[in-house]
Specification:
- The chain has 406 residues and is α/β, with parallel strands linked by helices.
- The strands form six sheets. An eight-stranded mixed β-sheet has the order 12-11-8-13-16-17-19-20, sandwiched between helices.
- The protein is elongated and about 85 Å long.
- 43% of the residues are buried.
- Ligand PMT binds next to helix 9, helix 11 and strand 16.
- The site of ligand PMT has 29 residues, from helix 9, helix 11 and strand 16.
Length: 406
């Protein structure tokens, strides 16, 4: 299945390094070309001779050979050679280094030079994995386009029990095979996606919100991840869960928080989709204490929230794809068309509350797709998962068309 695929395997110093012998054997068995690079610490855990024998290639550890022959390893050539770079086990130390662009050894220099997609299989102790610094570094690497094969739960070398065990070699080999198989047209691409409602506090016990459950947005996150993308999902409060190694969820409450989360991630996204039902207005001042019942009327002053999609639409870089939704109750086409223009969308997905089974809360949706260049596609009532797949297919086509132009 992997015939002719060139795979760089970067091994770091962790007890899990012994599993890399099996991974290399599985890749070679599938006829991949494998080049192993090890850090110095990795060779404390597994012998370079073992991995050289299994990979049928000398293992590289240093820029310059130790034997005074002047022979050196060209990190740029290695970075260009690979179809995929796998860093496994990826230790907290190497993760921190590459998240910050350090290159003090051959492996980290090759990472910086690699033009191929990069996948990391982290391995470390429970508390190291959960530490905010490690989680920050992982988020940074995901934002940089790296994919993560999540560590599993179980007994750790320290004797503790929890998350941090490197994925098993068979699981990694399967991930790699899937990566190279057809149907992952967005491999190596970043998607930024909003979902769910926002809630705007009136006082500590009350808020303004809407009926969005996040189902449409989460279905999109799943469909983008299935297509190989790395997904940054900015989610308002919903009751849904999504566990996917390629989906990073940031939870927010208010439109302003969602705006900030989107703004800080826009530059690195290839595709940006606004599926959230964002409150257009928020109370001017959220009371710090519960508002007491007084008189027959209560007036709450509302102020306009930022329009996240319109703001993003003004800052787009060449090649980025921008899409959103329109939820309408009357004059649907005209409103959707004007939103597409105002917010600088390539595609707007129109759903109407007049259609049974469409919009908020349902597992189904009935949408029309309006394209910037004037084309229109009307879909029948479909499960939200299927609607999501169709939207992802169209956005992939738009991305590919734009990248030919750029
Ligand atoms: O979550 P579910 O229960 O599955 O329901 C799905 C859905 C109905 C929420 C979804 O299909 C949908 O239509 N989402 C957009 C709802 C909406 O707010 O539409 P709008 O027409 O008000 O906004 C137009 C676009 O601008 C949207 O992409 C919206 O995310 C964006 N927007 C709106 C206001 C604002 N302040 N900032 C924004 O970015």
């Amino acid at each position: 299945m992997l015939k002719g695929k060139k795979i760089l395997v970067g091994v770091c110093g962790s007890i899990a390094a012994y599993k890399i012998a099996t991974l290399v054997r599985l890749l070679i068995k599938q006829e991949a070309e494998v080049q192993v690079i090890m850090t110095d610490a990795a060779s404390d855990f597994i012998s370079p001779l073992t991995l050289a024998t299994l990979s049928k290639n000398p293992v590289l550890t240093r820029y310059v050979a130790d034997d005074n022959t002047g022979e050196w390893s060209n990190h740029v050539a290695l970075g260009l050679w690979a179809d995929l770079m796998v860093i496994a086990p990826a230790t907290a130390n190497t993760i921190a280094k590459i998240a910050h662009g350090h290159c003090d050894n051959l492996l980290t220099a090759v990472y910086l030079s690699a033009r191929s997609p990069v996948v990391l299989a982290p391995a470390m102790d429970l508390d190291m994995w959960l530490h905010p610094a490690t989680q920050r570094n992982i988020s940074q690497l995901q934002a940089d386009g790296c994919q993560i094969i999540s560590p599993g739960e179980g007994e750790l070398a320290s004797g503790l029990h929890g998350k941090g065990r490197m994925a098993e070699p068979e699981q990694m080999a399967e991930w790699i095979a899937t990566f190279f198989s057809a149907g992952r047209p967005l491999a190596g691409k970043n998607v930024l996606l909003t979902a769910g409602p926002t809630i705007e506090p009136i006082d500590p016990v009350r808020y303004i919100t809407n009926h969005s459950t996040g189902k449409m947005g989460y279905a999109l996150a799943q469909a983008f991840a299935d297509a190989g993308a790395q997904v940054n999902l900015i989610s308002g409060p919903v009751a849904l869960q999504l566990e996917h190694p390629s989906v990073q969820i940031t939870h927010v409450q208010t439109a302003r928080q969602m705006h900030e989360a989107v703004t800080t991630r826009t530059a690195t996204a290839d595709i940006i989709v606004h599926c959230a039902a964002v409150a257009d207005y928020a109370p001017a001042h959220a009371a710090t204490q519960k508002i007491k019942k007084q008189g027959d009327k209560l007036t709450i002053e509302l102020v306009k929230n930022p329009d996240i999609a319109a703001d993003t639409g003004q800052k787009l870089q060449a090649g980025q794809v921008h899409a959103g939704f329109a939820l309408e109750t009357e004059n649907e086409q005209a409103h959707a068309q004007s939103k597409m223009e105002r917010k600088n969308f390539d595609l707007i997905v129109l759903n109407s509350l007049n259609d049974a089974g469409a919009g908020f809360g349902h597992d189904t949706n009935r949408v029309s797709l309006l394209f910037r260049e004037g084309k229109r596609e009307v879909l029948p009532l479909l499960p939200k998962s299927e609607v999501a797949r169709i939207i992802v297919r169209h956005l992939t086509n738009i991305l590919q068309a734009k990248s030919h132009v750029v």
